[in-house]
Amino acid sequence: QLIALSKKEALEEFANQTQLLRLSGARIASKNQILYVLLLGIYETKDLAKQALASVPKKQKQNISPWIRSMGSLQTAMIQGDRLAKINYVGARFAVLISIDKNDKNRQLKI
């Protein structure tokens, strides 16, 4: 997870200004507050996630505090975010992460 912001529009703007490729965004809940998070990717192991994070240029990590989180904690936070946002949740088992491809000149992250 690269960053968490309370405003969806602020996260979209941050994502669209970064030079990073294939980012994903999600709505979560933390401390009973809705947040929008930007994800660098999904990795099979913690070591692979650490390698991916280490490959992010220092300039891109300025003013943010990226951290590695488990898929289980992300899923739980997303479900709580949906509940907090009053989204219908009836035993869903899958989540959709919105992704953008930085190679697409018309790219825009919309969550």
How is this structure best described in words?
This protein is of the alpha+beta class. Helix content is 30%, strand content 17%. It has helices at 8-17, 46-54, 71-84, and strands spanning 3-5, 24-30, 33-39, 98-99. It has a four-stranded antiparallel β-sheet. The two termini are 15 Å apart. 17% of the residues are buried. The model has no long low-confidence stretch (mean pLDDT 80).
List keywords for this structure.
alpha+beta, four-stranded antiparallel β-sheet, 111 residues, globular, 4 strands, 3 helices
Q: Average pLDDT across residues?
A: 80
Structural class: alpha+beta
Low-confidence parts: none
Q: Helix-strand pattern, N to C?
A: EHEEHHE
Q: Give the percentage of residues in beta strands.
A: 15-25%
Query: What's the β-strand tally?
Result: 4
Give the helix tally. Answer: 3
CA-atom Rg in angstroms: 14 Å
Most strands sheet = 4 strands, antiparallel
Q: How far from one another are the termini?
A: 15 Å
Helix content range: 25-40%
Shape: globular
Order of strands, main sheet, comes to 1-3-2-4
> How is the quaternary structure best described?
single chain
